[in-house]
Amino acid sequence: MVEEQILMRPENAANLSPDSVAEFPVSPPVYTDVVVVPEQEKDVLQNLISNLESEIKQLRIKQRTWDEKRRGALRRILDIKGSIRVFCRIRPFLLAEKRRGSEPVSAGSERIWMKFGGRKKDFEFDKAMVCFEIEPFAESVFVEVEPILRSAMDGHNVCVFAYGQTGTGKTFTMDGSNEQPGIIPRALEELFRQSSVDNSSSFTFSMSMLEVYMGNLRDLLAPRLCNKAYEPMSKCNLNIQTDPKGFIEVEGLSEVPISDYAKARWWYNKGKRFRSTSWTNVNEASSRSHCLTRINIFRHGDGLEARREVSRLWMVDLGGSERLLKTGAKGLTMDEGRAINLSLSALADVIAALKRKRCHVPYRQVFC
Ligand code: ADP
Ligand code: MG
């Protein structure tokens, strides 16, 4: 190895007299390393480089094969578990319910028992989870969601939604609190984490948010004149279109690129602020609409033959079904409750049709 010292001077230094050069302030020397490889070692090094390159190629092929196997195994696990799975999450009693002396619910791992007017009834689920006052969220709900996220990143369309009566904890499960982030913020974080460790593909993501309010579709990420929730939206009552391949698309729905978790959280919080909520007897901030968060996942394989795949992850916080007498809703709040009840019973028809693998699934009735 030969080390050369190159002293840098201004370009016109050559034209200066020796005296003026002496006066010229000396610049600090800049050192560079020049590696001179002896001729006889050149071939050896070139051989080494090409061996390493072919080893990398082999490892890439191996990684792709393992990745295919992993995807296949996950697909089989999810097939065995079922493409529609229902989990029951039982929240702790709220203060008012404790005062009322509400009947406790008991639960096994897949079954819950409740008392209705002196009679005991039981319900079966894929998994039942009882939440205690201080609950490790990751242990219960998110553990079930993680493989579903992996499946979405593998190219499958996935939908996770919370369904139940008003006040049962749907928004808490999907959105959570600062101390206990719910499924949506945790899923966003997990998508970026998984994409950063996946060497076989590169991922890009975009996000859309909409709400179904009184039978209308509203774009929650549409640009507005100011950031106020009561400001009229520029995109209201959007249309649903079915493309020639049978995919369902919401015409004109805003879609924002999300390059990292911080951006995704920023857009998600922004969309959430514009969602319709109001007060009822059973919930201080009752969601008056169905709120849908859609993540578009673009996956690019690393091979030459790799295609770009697009999949969608929907995370939905549904409005709660309501017994209008119990909620004490009046006027607009009562109309909202009616619209929610109607669309939820239509959703039940959709799920029943999907479960029975019927050729006609009545999707459109949900937006009645
Ligand atoms: P929904 O969206 O089903 O109408 P919310 O998510 O708004 O119901 O929950 C109603 C109330 O119950 C809220 O005050 C919420 O903080 C509380 N809650 C719901 N789930 C839990 C839970 N797992 N742990 C503690 N509090 C909860
Ligand atoms: Mg809610």
Assembly state of the chains shown: single chain
- The structure class reads alpha+beta
CATH top level of the domain at 136-223 and 234-321 is Alpha Beta
CATH topology of the domain at 136-223 and 234-321: Kinesin
CATH architecture label of the domain at 136-223 and 234-321:
3-Layer(aba) Sandwich
Q: Give helix % range.
A: 25-40%
pLDDT < 50 stretches: 1-22
Structure write-up:
This protein is an alpha+beta fold. Among the domains are: 79-134, no CATH class; 136-223 and 234-321, Kinesin (3-Layer(aba) Sandwich), CATH 3.40.850.10. Helix content is 36%, strand content 26%. It contains 9 helices and 17 strands. It has helices at 18-23, 39-81, 95-100, 137-153, 170-174, 183-197, 261-273, 324-327, 331-355, and strands at 2-6, 30-34, 87-90, 106-107, 111-116, 119-124, 127-130, 158-162, 201-213, 216-219, 240-242, 248-250, 256-258, 277-280, 283-287, 290-301, 308-317. The strands form 6 sheets. Strands 8, 9, 10, 13, 16 and 17 form a 6-stranded mixed sheet that branches. Strand 4 (106-107) and strand 5 form a beta hairpin. The longest helix has 43 residues, at 39-81. It starts with a strand and ends in a 13-residue tail after the last helix. Residues 1-22 have low confidence and may be disordered. Bound molecules: adenosine-5'-diphosphate and magnesium ion. The site of adenosine-5'-diphosphate has 16 residues, from helix 5 and strand 15. Residues 42-69 form a coiled coil. One of its GO terms (biological process) is microtubule-based movement.
